[in-house]
Every structure is written in C-alpha cells, then in structure tokens.
Design a protein that fits this description.
6% strand; 4 strands; alpha/beta; four-stranded mixed β-sheet; abc type-2 transporter like fold
C-alpha cells in the first residue's frame, strides 16, 4: 500500500502542478455551476406580451393590470388594430398577445361567458404551454373575484394546490441537485480518462512498468486520485447548492455520501476503461465525451425517463448517473434514507464492480 500511496501522491501532484489541469478542475465546473444554477430553469419571468383591448372598460383594465403586475409577464405594446399581431409574433418581439373582445364587460354584467383570446407563439411548444398555464391562472383568479364582487355564483369546486417536497415550485430546487451528479461525473471522468493515456503520450508508461508496482497497483494508484477529486468536487457543489442557491438538504449526509461514493467508483471504472484503451490524451478525451453526452441525456437530468421509448428506457439501466440523480434529489428534497435508496445503490454498485473488473482486464491485456 505504501507504493500505491506514493503513486497516488504522484498522480495528484501531476494534476495539481499542471496549470491546464488546474484550470480544467476549477474553471469549467465553476462556470457550469453558475450557468446551470441561474440559466437552466423551467420558470418563466418577464414574458413579453402585447395587448389588443377592444373593450376599454374598467373590467378589461382590471384584468390587464393583473397581467402587468405579475412577475411572469412584461407588457411591451398596446395595439390599436389586429394587423400588428402577426408581425409582432413573427419577429419574436412578444410571445403572447392578449385580445379582449369588445363585448367583454357587457357579457360579464349579463352573466354570460366573456371570451378572452390568447394568441401564443407556438414555435417553442413547452414554453407556450407554460405561458398558457400562467395566463389561465390570472384569468381564473379574475373570474372568481368578479363573481364574488358582483353577486354571481361561485364555482362549485375550488382547486387548492399544495406541492409536496417543493412548496414554492422553484425549478432550481430540481436542477441544482442534479448538477451535483452532472459535474461530478464530468470532472471525475476527465481526470481518470487522461491518467494512463498521459503516461503513454509522455513516454513514462514503460518506466512505470519496471517499478515494483504490479498492474493492479498501477490501476489502483491511477483510480484513487480520480475518486478523491470527484468526492471533493461533489462536496463543493453540495455546499454551493445549500448555502448559495438555498436548496434545502432534508436528508442525512450518510445516505448522500454513500451513494456518491458508489457513483464515483462507477465513473472511475468507466474512466479507467477508456484510459486503458486510449493511446493518446486526445483519444481519451474523445472517448470521455462520447460517453458523457448520451449518459447525461439518458439520465433524467432534464427530461423524464418515463417519457422515453421503452428501448431507450432499457438502455438507461446501464447508466450510473440515472441512479445517482434519484439519490441526490431524494436526499435533498424528500429526506430519503438508506432503505428508500437501496434500489438505487445496488445497480450503481453492480456497474462499478463490472467497470472496474473490465478496466483491470483491459489494463493487464494492454500491458502484456
């Protein structure tokens, strides 16, 4: 073990003393954390909209004031005719045009349905559905208050919404814990994938083989630095998630770090497999990115796995990030413990065992 620890120290010094490696370890994760934490959100704010009010009554002004006062909407134009509607949407100047019928207030006082037309930019369907949901909430609230104020019949049933695990429905609470898995995988995989390839490219791999270290010792010495760096990187992101972004950590650190350890072991195994196959650092980088992009897409980071075709869902079963996302989000938002997360632990452990075994076999095969 003394020889293995010496190799681990040598690997850590090689990474930390190299200016480019330090930049890779610190710069990209920090930038990605800020970008994902602030920019990657499912919430809509200041959606630009235009108004074509043909009624111009107190009731229509009251409804429009609700849209203008909502943080989700930002009024950009008041139209005097319908001819500008298509031009504004085509030029992407607005995402929504609110058209109020000239009979709006008359229908309200007559106890008849008062139509309000919403013209949406449907080129981004998900965004359009979110805008429609926000607008529907405002119109529904206006309708209920109008009926109460003017003696109309109140709805027979009222929707009382309560969101478990995420009461404010802040999408950052969902995204930021996922960044723990995303950036930990990226950094660990890059560091480990370059280890053996760097030795081969620099011509020092043969010198390593004539040392008293066995192939298993070399593999262990190459994998442990990546394991340590991955754990440190994840710890920094967890601290940022809690103290900077304000995401509640409802569960314990033990279930979280146990899952993190198993996940990083699986990623280290994949990185060692790539490093054993690659002859140059460029090949190792290409192999790492070839694995990373599909693994992120098929992990459930942004889109639910249940919405994918069945064949693709089966493919995600060999992706360790799929399981760790459930662990980290479960611990952060649900306060999940070991028993609840056991179905996620053992598949990651199986993937880690298989990848480390395959990396050892590939390494011995390339050595001999």
């Amino acid at each position: 073990m003394r020889r293995v620890l010496a190799l681990v120290v040598k690997e850590l010094l090689a990474v930390l003393k190299d200016a480019k490696s330090r930049v890779v370890l610190i710069g990209p994760p920090l930038i990605q954390l800020i970008v994902f934490g602030y920019a990657a959100t499912f919430d809509l704010n200041h959606v630009p909209f235009a108004v074509y009010d043909e009624d111009r009554s107190a009731a229509s002004r009251d409804l429009l004031a609700r849209f203008a006062g909502s943080p989700a909407f930002s009024e950009r134009a008041r139209l005097q005719s319908a001819r500008r509607i298509a031009r504004l949407i085509d030029a992407r100047e607005v995402a929504l045009v609110l058209v109020i019928d000239p009979r709006f207030s008359r229908d309200l006082f007559s106890r008849r349905p008062a139509p309000v037309e919403l013209i949406l930019d449907g080129r981004q369907s998900n965004t359009a559905l979110l805008i429609l949901g926000y607008a529907n909430e405002i119109v529904t609230a206006f309708s209920e208050e109008w009926m109460r104020a003017h003696g109309g019949k109140e709805p027979a049933a009222l929707l009382d919404m309560r969101a478990r695990y995420n009461p404010p429905l802040d999408s950052r609470w969902f995204i930021v814990p996922g960044i723990v898995a995303l950036l930990t995988q990226v950094v660990t995989l890059l560091v480990v994938a370059l280890t053996v390839a760097r030795e081969r490219e620099m011509g020092t791999f043969d010198q390593l083989l004539v040392t008293p270290l066995s192939p298993f010792d070399i593999l262990l010495g190459k994998g442990l630095p990546g394991l340590l760096i991955g754990l440190v990187e994840a710890t920094l992101i967890i601290l940022a998630a809690v103290w900077w972004f304000g995401v509640p950590l409802r569960g314990g650190l033990m279930p979280l770090y146990f899952g993190l350890l198993v996940f990083v072991l699986a990623v280290v195994g994949i990185g060692l497999m790539l490093s054993s196959l690659a002859l140059t650092q460029q090949q190792a980088l290409l192999g790492a990115f070839l694995f990373m992009v599909p693994s992120i897409i098929l992990s459930g980071f942004a889109t639910p796995i249940a919405n994918m075709p069945q064949a693709v869902q089966d493919l995600t079963l060999i992706n360790p990030m799929r399981y760790f996302l459930v662990v980290v989000r479960g611990v952060f938002l649900e306060g999940a413990g070991f028993s609840a997360l056991l179905p996620q632990y053992w598949p990651m452990a199986a993937i880690a065992f298989f990848t480390l075994l395959a990396a050892a076999w590939l390494f011995r095969r390339r050595v001999y």
